[in-house]
Every structure is written in C-alpha cells, then in structure tokens.
Automatic annotation (TrEMBL):
Pfam family membership, one: Beta-barrel_CAF17_C
Any one GO cellular component localisation term in the record: mitochondrial matrix
Organism this protein belongs to: Saccharomyces paradoxus (Yeast)
Gene: IBA57
Gene3D superfamilies: 2.40.30.160, Probable tRNA modification gtpase trme, domain 1
PANTHER family per record: TRANSFERASE CAF17, MITOCHONDRIAL-RELATED
Full protein name: Iba57p
Family that this chain belongs to: Belongs to the GcvT family. CAF17/IBA57 subfamily.
Length: 497
C-alpha cells in the first residue's frame, strides 16, 4: 500500500475495497468479449502505443524558473504568510455533492534549484502539492495563442538511491512541433543554467492506458478517488511525493524500471467523480524495450477478472473527442486558438491566473479577468462525416445554424420610399458561423462553438440544426454534446452577471 507520511496519504489497497470480488483467476484477452455468451468483465485494461510523440529533455538548477516563464501552469510556489490555524470557514472550498474539503495548507518553502524534487501543482484537495506525476500545460506565443499543449514529466518517475543534484524533466510534444519549441527554448535561454536536447525518437515509447470497472453501480463513489486521485494531491514535500509515486508504480506496474514517466489524467475528474464506471486514464513513457504494455500492468492487485484490449491511436482519439479534449498539435493548428477557448480554466493546474508574467500572459489574464470569451471547445457528433475534407492544412470547417433558428440575422430591408419607381432592394447580411470544427475522428469531433449558441445547443427542449456545408455541397449534420464543464461554466457565468 502507499506509504502514509505527514500528509496522512491513504493506502492503495484495492483488494480490500467492498467491490473487489474474490477470484483465483483472471481473464485476459486481446479480443472483444461476445456479450451473448460471456458476461461483462469486472475490469477492462485498454492500451495503445503513440508513435507520433517526441520529447525534449531539460535539466539544470534554473529549469523550473525557466519553464515557469514559458508555460501556462504555475511551477513555482507563492508562499502564503498566514497562520494556518486561522483559516476561515469561508476559505475552505467545498464541492456540491461531495464531502467538505480540507483546509488549504501551503507547501513549505524550499530551494527549487536543488535536487530532483518533482513538480509543484497549484491546486489539490488541501491546496498546492508536490508530485512526481506528469502535468498537463501549454506554451503560448506573445499574442496569447496556443503554440502547443504539453505534458511535463518529472524523471525518473521514482527516485531510488542518491537524489540527483538538479531538477530534470521530459517535455512531450507531437513530432510536428518539437523543432519550433526547441527554437523557443533556445531564444529564451540567455544565461539560464539549463541544458536541453531532443531525445532520440526511437529511444522512448509513449502509451495511452485506460482502466475501467464496468460492473460497479454508477451511483457509488469512484474508487480511483480514494485510492489515487485525491491522495496524489496531498504530498507537501519531495519525500512524500516520491514515496507515493514508488507505491503507485509498485501497486499498478510492479515497479518496472522501464517506466520513465507517468501522467495521471485529472482533466475529466468532474465526470468520474459522479460515475464509478468511468475509466481512469494514464499516459506512460517507457524505454524502447517495452513492446507490450499490458505485460507491465499488475493485474494481481485486483481480485477480479480483466479483459485486455490493445487499441489503435484512432480509437483513443475518438474517446478523447467524446470527452471534449484535444491532445497535441495533431488535433489543432498551432497559434490559432486561445487556451481559455480550449477550457484550460476548467482543467486542473493547466493554467494559472496569479503566477505573474509568462509568455502570452497579458491577453490570457485580461480575458480571464473580464470574462469576455466568445467561443469554447465542445464535443460534437457528426452525421455524414465521410463527406468532410480530410486535408489538415486547410482552414477549420465553418459550422452554421439553420436560418430559421438564427436570431438577429434577418434580411435588412430599407424603409419604403413613396417616390421610388422600383421596389426596395433587399440586402442580405452574411451569416456569421456558429462555430468551427477543430478536429474529428470519424463521427466524433471537437468544435469551437460560439457561447451565444450554448442555450439552444445544450438547454433547449427543441433541437437546433447545426451543419457544415462541404466544398462539394454536401451537408454534414453537427450535434453538440454537453461538455463536462458546462454546469460549472453556467454557475460561474451567472455569478458574473
């Protein structure tokens, strides 16, 4: 089980949970189950290799300070000079429908230049925390547009033996943007005491993983929260963070030394918190020697049968789009979108509103402060998707709304002139697109939808027609799906008014 320390971290003891069924054997197959002959398995382990990912390795005493000035996440602590015994009741954040949150506890001051201590995360269930798991973040250009998102991995995933002198990380990118980021790093390096280089593409492998328990009652508490998602946000120092990482890797992956970095998906917590069957996702970076990730997973920590599915990246991409998420410049064009348009403000620790200056900060901070944002990314379902142009170099496809539903776009008709010999000329105003299709994988996609259409798309009893007209004149029906953050956005929006 996970080591309990000053943070009182809970143990990862899945065998002892009430839903863990006793079984002396486990079912492992790479083929889908036949529902007519076999009942649904208690556990499903799905994985997929990602061959398009490339990494930049960065290390040195100034690494954290350097990255903090380039990415949207807050990587350096802001130390709170407050008596921790005087936290007011109003300062204790609570979430509707869950137990009261713990008081906010700051991370004690430490020297971020020394030691391979992990990553600072700004927000957890008890405030900021230290972690050895990856962090989802992004690089912006000077105008606040997204150059690329990234995952920052502390490496190695766990420390054994002597601690290295300085912080060290892997930065994950799609291969089509890594050279641009290398140029950005070189431009900003100046006198910073850091070293960085692109890793050999063949030396590392990237894997997407999902673990699901489909037979759990949907209304019960998701076991991943008590066993992983909540306790991983508790460590306040590097020792606790490393102990927790050691025990996670031992419990789930038999402490395999070929695992170099681990990212635990937290972006969809608002879904999984209310659905115990929602799969928990991971991303793993391994050495090139790993050919089958399922052989690294410790199925014996679960006392019930498992089905193993090896998927192709396109299947994982479909699942990601159903959640309304993008992942790397494979899904969008660099420098065309704002981070808040991609809902970074609803993703844990993906963007900071109080970290101070970083590249692209001015527009981002102003947009967040004023609340003036005209479009947001939402999941969509597409009918007749096969008619869409697959040329990724072209502009995003425009999404329109049925004219009868569009308000304020009626034809402009001049006032009648009693001296005119002709009937007045009707001037038709060009219809403004309701949104843009950013990317799709078959019938599932993500679209930038104008906020003015949210009520008709997500709250109206009568369906509204959204569509894309292709260059060949074919219509593709677009059906927006309610995003996981919509309830929180609606609450925040009502407070601003």
């Amino acid at each position: 089980m996970f080591i309990s320390t000053r943070c009182r971290i809970k143990g990862f003891t899945l065998k002892k949970l009430p839903w863990a069924k006793s079984s002396s054997t486990r079912f492992v197959s790479t083929e889908p189950l036949n529902a007519s002959t076999i009942t649904k398995p208690d556990g499903i382990f799905s994985y997929s290799p990602l061959s398009s990912r490339t990494y930049i390795r960065i290390r040195g005493p100034d690494t954290v300070k350097f990255l903090n000035g380039l990415v949207t996440s807050k990587l350096l602590p802001h130390f709170i000079k407050k008596n921790l015994t005087t936290v007011e009741e109003s300062e204790i954040a609570t979430e509707k429908g869950t137990k009261k949150a713990d008081p906010i506890v700051p991370v004690p001051e430490f020297d971020a230049r020394l030691g391979n201590w992990g990553l600072y995360n700004e927000t957890g269930i008890q405030g900021p925390y230290i972690s050895r798991f990856g962090l989802y973040s992004a690089f912006l250009n000077g105008k606040g547009k997204l150059v690329t998102d990234t995952i920052i991995y502390p490496i190695p995933a766990k420390l054994t033996g002597q601690v290295p002198d300085y912080p060290e990380y892997l930065l994950e990118f799609h291969e089509n943007v890594v050279d641009k980021i290398l140029h950005v790093l070189q431009t900003h390096k100046l006198t910073s005491k850091i070293k960085f280089e692109k890793t050999d593409h063949a030396s590392l492998k990237t894997w997407d993983v999902e673990v699901q328990f489909p037979n759990l009652p949907k209304d019960m508490e998701n076991p991943w929260f008590d066993n992983l998602l909540d306790p991983m946000t508790l460590p306040k120092n590097s020792v606790d963070a490393n102990n927790f990482a050691i025990n996670v890797l031992e419990s789930l992956f038999n402490s395999d030394p070929r695992i170099l970095g681990v990212y635990v998906e937290r972006r969809t917590e608002s879904i999984s918190r209310h659905d115990s069957t929602f799969p928990q996702s991971f991303r793993l970076v391994t050495s090139e020697q790993v050919d089958d990730l399922s052989k690294l997973f410790n199925f014996n920590v679960f006392d019930f049968p498992f089905q193993v599915n090896k998927k192709v990246p396109a299947q994982i991409r479909e699942i990601r789009f159903q959640k309304g998420l993008v992942d790397s410049t494979e899904d969008y064009k660099p420098e065309t979108l704002l981070p808040l348009e991609l809902n970074f403000d609803f993703l844990p620790n993906a963007i900071s509103t109080n970290k101070g200056c970083y590249v692209g900060q001015e527009l981002t901070a102003r947009t967040y402060a004023t609340g003036i944002l005209r479009k947001r990314l939402v999941p969509v379902k597409l009918d007749n998707y096969q008619f869409l142009d697959t040329d990724s170099e072209k502009k995003y496809a425009e999404i329109h709304i049925d004219a009868v539903e569009e308000k304020g776009l009626a034809e402009n008709e001049p006032a009648p002139n009693p001296f005119a010999n002709k009937a007045p000329v009707r001037i038709k105003r060009k219809q403004r697109p309701a949104g843009l299709l950013i990317a799709n994988e078959r019938q599932y996609g993500v679209a930038l939808l104008r906020i003015e259409h949210f009520s008709s798309a997500f709250s109206s009893d009568e369906p509204v027609g959204f569509y894309i007209t292709t260059a060949n004149g074919e219509n593709v029906k677009v059906t927006p799906q309610t995003p996981f953050w919509f309830r929180d956005w609606k609450s925040n929006d009502s407070l601003r008014k």
